[in-house]
Design a protein that fits this description.
heterodimer, A: 197 residues, mainly alpha, globular, B: 9 helices, 66% helix, disordered N terminus
Chain lengths: 197, 207
Amino acid sequence: MAPAIHPISLFFASIFTSNILLANFLGMCSFIAISKDSKSSNGLGLAVVVVLTITTALNWVVLNYVLVPLDLVYLRFIVFIIVIASVVQMLEMIIDRVSQTLYLSLGIFLPLITVNCAILGVSLFMEIRQYSFIQSAIYGFGSGLGWWLAIMALSAIRKKTEKSKVHAGLQGAGLTFITIGFMAMAFIGFAGLLQVQ
Amino acid sequence: MSDTAVKDPGAILKTNLWTSNPIFVQVLGICSALAVTNLLTNTMIMTVGVVFTTAMSSLTVSLMKSFIPRKVRMVVQTLIIAFYVIIVDIVLRAYLPEVSRNLGPYVGLIITNCIIMGRAEAFAQSNGPILSFWDGMTSGLGYMGVLLAIAFVRELLGFGSLFGMRIFPEGFTPWTIMVMPPSAFFLIGLIVWVGKTIMHRQGEPVT
């Protein structure tokens, strides 16, 4: 049975209190690599929002109407990955046809997304927590927005820290991790607002 | 070419455990890792799963490399990795159901762990099966070492225990921050810092 969480509280919870990146550590690889540049961060963040919303909803349908009736739930990892990869591929082709400018700002980030753990992670969380269809779609959308917010915030902070003088060993990855740690602490401050598992 | 140049098992061991450690030098595969480091037992089981998957998928990719068309090799590699992750998942569900529940989605997320794909792409594509197996295994071990170090600190200070056994007496006040996500980021930041500083001292090139 789907847990009784109001979709609106789920939406805010997935952005702030259980931010997919800062509370669940998903999507770190591209997060650290891309956040050097705020323009790319914006593009990737937007792409993550779009892909997460579509794939989470689609994976819900596949899980509940194909895998569960056929008793093939143990194949879900492979099936989810294939769904994600094909959605990404299709989006890339559609965007290329529809708008060249959008393709230039968004399209180049799409291939990166297939290997972003946040996408698969959200689908797996959706399965474990047994969300309903509406809840899954909202959870996917909210998580995407949360990821976007986090990467924009980090890229802004990194712009400042880049110029500061730090110990040689701390430069780059080390400093970034500690910055993310402070961001995660700030986001924990939201925890009093809502408590959704 | 730096990866393919290394053919000696001892050199591979040193490279993967230290000079290009997947976590603190290459900053790969943090995604699924940090969330499981609040308890040593979970970390241990999770990293054993990663070592198994990396080693076996490197071996398989290396054995199959001449049959895989270049254009679809990423897809094939992902499917090979997913195959081994499903094995790990089923074994955990059958023998360690409680740990499997604690790890939740993170077992499935081994698939998108960049280390495994990275080793398959950078090493197994162009090397023999035995060396690839060894390379995958040592990469996994390098990852394991760092994660166990983080989990050690987090469980000791956060719960006052190690592997679930109480170390500090009853009166010990647990550091709540250590159980929460930010501490994982701070600790990994510190580990990267210490690791890179030691490398600077030794005058080794830092990538």
